[in-house]
# Entry
Amino acid sequence: MINKINMKKVIMILLLILIPVLLQISCSGYVANPYSGVGIGVSGGPYGPHTTTTIRAGVYGGGYYR
Amino acid sequence: MNLTIKFFAFLVISVVLLSCGGEQKFPSITETPTSTFTYGQVVWRELATPDPGVSEEFYKKVFGWTFVKSAGNDREYWLIKNNGKSIGGMFQLKDKNPEAGGEWVCSISVPSVSGAIASVKANGGKVILGPLDLEGRGKLALINDQQKAQMIILHSVSGDPVQDRTIDNQWLWSELWSNDVAQSENFYKSLINGTSEKRKDDNREYTVIESNGEKVLGIIENPAENVRSHWLQYIKVKDLNSVFEKAKSSGARVLIAPSPEIRKGTVAVLLDPTGAPFAIQKWPIEE
# Structure
């Protein structure tokens, strides 16, 4: 009798742990994680930590904004 | 099962279900849905940075922007706000070449992402990622033009934000520094189904791309030697010299300092501490 009750408790506790875990997994699979693609393929800018450049004189004249 | 356990189980499951539903949307580019589109225009800018902490600190100090972290999972995303209004986003570069710096990546509004992709491919560009359907954001693709300048083509699910170029510390203009202006002109004209106009200011040639009667993009010959083609985003400022000094003291490197020969000293081009290029511009220029 005691063993039967303990077993019931163990199963209940296991279910309590498993259900949220399974829900979390199924949710993340169902709705594709929108953040998982962020930054993929973005190469980064051309002025890296070791980039040196010279600005050619007379080429830049400011932007045009209407 | 006694009542306490039942209640506890209900609570846990409810919390999990609620968290599944609410956090999965990607931030929209509009504060409220507009349902209007400004095709061909740059409608959103995102800072791809190797160091979000350094970037946040810099733009906070120089422009007073605030950064609101979205509920991210394995990759994080921040909304950038000016006076409480969303003006862009920020994410961390994780797959980058260690030699790469930060970069502002702009999103251009298109009526059809698949149509724009066809144009990209037909004109020698490359689709790097997508098309993707991001819940909350819309349909988009990350592309490279022929010279590896990157941008996002986007059909926003909430419409496009209202363009307002009168607000200080907000976006004014987007300009491509191109290593082949003629090629870029054809590429972007085709991409947005636009037209182009050649201007000459102080004997310097400037190509303006127009869409639906609006001037939307600029293209100039890349003045930076040994640097690939890239986009430069302009930020409108009230006091150019004060912002310029603040940026320098906060770790910016100077590409082009204000000069009386260039638009009467009203513009400067800088690299933020991670190497992301941007321009500051006092506008309108007082005669």
